[in-house]
Amino acid sequence: MPRSTDILLTALAPAVWGSTYLVATEVLPAGYPISMAALRALPAGLLLLALTRCLPPRIWLGRVFLLGSFNFALFWALLFVAAYRLPGGVAATLGSLQAMMVIVMARGWLGTPIRAGAVAAAATGVSGVALLLIGPGAALDPVGVAAGLGGAASMAAGTVLSRKWQPPVSPLSFTAWQLTAGGLILLPFALIMEPPLPPLTGTNLAGLAWLGLIGAAATYALWFRGVSRIEPGAVSMLGMMSPVTAVLLGWVVLGQSLTLMQGLGAAVVLGSVWAGQRANRRSVPGASVAQSNSWHRLHDRSFGKENPS
Fold this sequence. Notes:
Membrane topology: Multi-pass membrane protein
Keywords: Membrane, Transmembrane, Transmembrane helix
Protein name: EamA family transporter
Family: Belongs to the EamA transporter family.
Largest sheet: none
Transmembrane segments: 34-52, 64-84, 90-110, 117-137, 143-162, 174-193, 205-223, 235-254, 260-276
Mean pLDDT: 87
Order of helices and strands: HHHHHHHHHHHHHH
Number of helices: 14
Radius of gyration: 19 Å
């Protein structure tokens, strides 16, 4: 499959994730962030496990739970803390630092060279997100800033380690394993730290279905598929599509204003994403490319269901 097609399919994931803020604020009950995260992850993971009928072997359990923590449990928990304690624009800008963190982590864990063009594209993208989302007088809360940086680091680590550790199963099964692990980690914290949920309405359930089935199961399968095929730095740049989608949805659905400065920020973000794809191309050493090609040969036919391992 052409690299451009892989990039477009992978970019669908963060584009859909941009709807999370809209759904969470307009559809889901407020004040239950960990419970909502657990309900987003665990049912979707269990459903995918039932569809793929592929359980992780015992030797993979430690890695699966670590990845489930980085990509879902820890990331989503810190994301909610940052969202509650910081203006949305500040939180999103801190999250966009993930691209620069991935470049550094990929160097240490994968041996990927650090390229000046990739760093410049990531820094420009962060600037674009700031133009897009940060308004005048944005306040900085130390706990919120720490949570925002921690969430970015968690997702960056999950992205790079998901590239480093690729089990011999389809991306759909890999997603099922991680979603289930992340949900199981979140569940006890939700039960201990938050009050019981109120009765959920049909609207609440529809929002959870969207976030779980589309915003988690389907999109993370595309994301992990892209992680296995595209350079880590290039994949992480695609994450900047999320704030662009969020702003556009706020404008179209909620009638929020869209200023000239925000339009400039969106253009800068999109330009940096394009530049990041070019700068990161062919930056993975031969061994990693060979591993990725082996994955492709084994699993191009198994994006859906495979036999239990």
